[in-house]
Design brief:
Length: 105
């Protein structure tokens, strides 16, 4: 599955949960995570999305470490299975079930 499709699923499921998954573009700061997920009554979560076989670039690794050193919840989510696992980790089991049923073989 393409990264753009994984990103679309994330955005749609976060909206269903009453939140937002903002695209993060930071001029002069290449490698920042793809999305900032904001859900009701939770701190933001920074998410870098990858395909199942995708790899982080050195710049992405650096940006993720910087955010983590600042105490930010920063995650790398790989493929549909990783997306379902992410939703389980935040207690959104219905979203995880939908993703497993539709996209995980």
């Amino acid at each position: 599955m393409k990264e753009s499709r994984i990103e679309r699923i994330l955005v749609d499921e976060i909206r269903k949960a009453g939140g937002r998954a903002y695209k993060w573009v930071s001029p002069g700061n290449d490698g920042v995570p793809d999305r900032i997920v904001i859900l009701p009554d939770r701190p933001p979560i920074f998410i870098e999305l990858k395909t199942e076989s995708g790899r982080l670039t050195k710049r992405q690794e650096t940006q993720i470490r910087r955010l983590q050193r600042l105490g930010q919840d920063t995650r790398v989510v790989k493929g549909a299975r990783g997306l379902a696992q992410f939703f389980c980790s935040i207690g959104r089991y219905e979203a995880a079930s939908r993703i497993y049923a539709r996209y995980v073989e």
